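Hi V.,

Quick status before I head out on leave. The structure for the redesign project is tokenized and pasted below; the design run finished overnight.
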């Protein structure tokens, strides 16, 4: 397709294909279904990056569950975290006594989720776990336990399947390494 071909020109290479994503998400859904058997977890989507992953994942979980959405940001348009976390949209419901599963697109420095898990623990959740599509362990700046990881990736800036650069590329079905010339001028 014309439109897709144009966006794909900005990538150096494809890192994870949509078929590999679908398979990993299916397996993760099965594992979560087993691990949370008998419970009714709250699946918490971290906007906007986790949206495609979240939508696919919840349909692979065979349990009663509820959905929440939060928007946090530590980024702006840059490709490096500022280290400052801001809550832009908060939970709609009380999570006291609930088993919360945070669904995130990528853990990089770990700063965002470190802050967020502490914040949610202070609101009385029974348990808090993290499911992330991608993990860049090489870039960790704070200690963070990721409970579910679909793919560990090398230290490269990636886009697609929800991940953006300056709000673009979120609609790519695959995940690819963004060509440095795109953000070089930064
Ligand atoms: P952290 O706080 O450094 O772990 O950053 C987490 C957030 O940074 C993610 O939710 C993404 O929004 C963003 N991020 C980190 N690495 C990438 C990347 O390679 N591509 C796009 N966004 C990224
Ligand atoms: Mg994000």
């Amino acid at each position: 397709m014309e439109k897709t071909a144009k966006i794909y020109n900005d990538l150096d290479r494809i890192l994870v294909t949509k078929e590999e994503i679908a398979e990993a998400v299916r397996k993760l859904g099965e594992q979560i279904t087993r691990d949370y058997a008998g419970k009714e977890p709250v699946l918490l989507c971290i906007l906007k990056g986790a949206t495609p992953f979240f939508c696919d994942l919840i349909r692979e979980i065979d349990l009663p569950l509820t959905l929440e959405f939060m928007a946090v940001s530590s980024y702006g348009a840059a490709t490096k975290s500022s280290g400052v976390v801001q809550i832009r949209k908060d939970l709609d419901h009380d999570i006291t006594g609930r088993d919360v599963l945070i669904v995130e697109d990528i853990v990089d420095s770990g700063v965002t989720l470190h802050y967020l898990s502490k914040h949610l623990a202070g609101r009385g959740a029974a348990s808090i776990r993290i499911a992330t599509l991608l993990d860049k362990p090489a870039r960790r700046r704070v200690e963070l336990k990721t409970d579910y990881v679909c793919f560990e990736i090398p230290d490269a800036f990636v886009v697609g399947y929800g991940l953006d650069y300056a709000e673009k590329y979120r609609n790519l079905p695959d995940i690819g390494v963004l060509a440095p010339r795109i953000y070089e001028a930064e």
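Above is the designed sequence. Helices lie at 2-8, 18-35, 51-58, 111-121, 180-183.

G. will cover questions while I'm gone.

Best,
W.
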